[in-house]
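Is S-adenosylmethionine placement plausible here? Inputs below.
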Amino acid sequence: THFGFKTVQKEDKEKLVGGVFSSVASKYDVMNDAMSMGVHRLWKSHFIDRLDAGMRPGSSRPLDFLDVAGGTGDIAFGLLDHAEKKFGDVSSTMTVADINPDMLHEGELRFQKSKWNDGSDRVKFLVQNGEIMDKIEDNSKDVYTIAFGIRNFTDVQAGLNTAYRVLRPGGIFACLEFSQVENPAIDYAYQAYSFSLLPLMGQLIANDRDSYQYLVESIRKFPNQETFKGMIQKAGFYVPEPGYENLTFGVASIHIGVKL
Ligand code: SAM
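Reply from A.M.:
I modeled the complex. Tokens:
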């Protein structure tokens, strides 16, 4: 393996991922800011603007959003905010699903303090494995989002197939995820940063070097933009060309698919 890291066995991955996110849940937001030097916020708001989702005035029914691996709720609340500010949409629903109850709990705490906690029942939190999602019906959602979550799935293709299953025809799949830097010189600097500084920051801020080492390795092992695009198509989605958008040289990318 590169840089002397042990490769995580597939069988151990689910258990390990659970541990990683339980141990970082409460420090998750602080760590995110520190590690990405705030850039993850820009990526997330770009993702939300780009999607531009919300019930258009005059349309016949509200939308059903599903944010998978929703964790602390950044994307879910951002989408609801956008829909309200841009389209005056105050009736679309949001389901936040995450495999880890501790991460979901952080999201619920934030929800309780938010303006959406108005007794209207628009926002729901569900502990669900995104590969299966047995509590989400077929053809029941209009927008499926996942940000920095799918690379943690044991079986990424199963996750994409499930996304296809739960979306209605016409529904949109949108994924924001770490990706591969295409320029070799920039990639060299990026790898050096992520393999040395990130675990160190993990240790200093969260006292948890191993979890952040896992995160770095999971980023390196995730399929590149073209391969991931192919997997989205394999799940059944129509992928509008060019299929993805690189952010910050490809450190992250946005993939979109449409269920026709
Ligand atoms: N979407 C949030 C954000 O952008 O801030 C959280 C991202 S966090 C890096 C990754 C999340 O994926 C964690 O909350 C973790 O529990 C969740 N996760 C990992 N594997 C999952 C799975 N198989 N199904 C659902 N969620 C999963």
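Short version: The longest strand covers residues 167-178.
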